[in-house]
Amino acid sequence: MDGNGRWAKKHGQPRVFGHRNGVQSVREATEAAAELGVEYMTLYAFSTENWGRPKAEVNALMTLLVQTIRKEIATMNKNNIRLKAIGDLEQLPSKSHKALLEGIENTKNNTRMTLVLALNYSAKWEILKAVKTLAQEAKDGKIDPKGISEATFDDALSTKGIPHPELLIRTSGEQRISNFLLWQIAYAELAFLPIYWPDFRKQHLYQAIIDYQNRERRFGKTSDQISDSE
Known about the structure:
It is a single chain. The protein contains 8 helices and 5 strands, in the order ααβαβαβααββαα. It has helices at residues 4-10, 15-36, 55-78, 94-106, 123-139, 150-155, 202-213, 223-229, and strands at residues 40-47, 81-86, 113-121, 167-170, 189-192. The strands form 2 sheets. Strands 1-3-2 form a 3-stranded parallel sheet, sandwiched between helices. It has a two-stranded parallel ribbon with strand order 4-5. Strand 2 (81-86), helix 4 and strand 3 form a beta-alpha-beta unit. The chain starts with a helix and ends with a helix.
């Protein structure tokens, strides 16, 4: 969800103004995804690198996180949406961590869609953590290193039990991944939109999905092989 700060600057406002207006875009994307039958949607809300931003902006983001989660729990329950989170969550400020856990607990029985927030998240951190976990288990004799498979590695990641993304959308016109789900998006389709996140609305998600549906996903095979298997 990129471009909040630049959107605010464009409107002559401080960066936090962009983050606050980005909340409406979160609602739009979540509602649209649920209406379309999307089962899992992950929002990259705060990366480990974001701690390097101005302290006032980080504090405002953490406060906004608490306010938004507590405000939206009733709506999520009404729409049968479950909240989950990935990242180094224990390093979040205590109020933010508490609000997040409350949201997860209060929506855990919902089944229509799972909304995953990536908070204090870094794909490199996640992969390194998984490697260390598997190395320790091998050292302790719990697993055979030769038996480590893609499935084994999947289970050591923060996203255990969450399907790999089929479509990744990035706003603001930037055309890079920026340390997001690097293992999981190996075969995801990518969509880079020229709009800033606060301008994102349902129709943008609809169009991205239509574009996705018109692509041929080959997973390393040829077009002929895909056609023959259909």
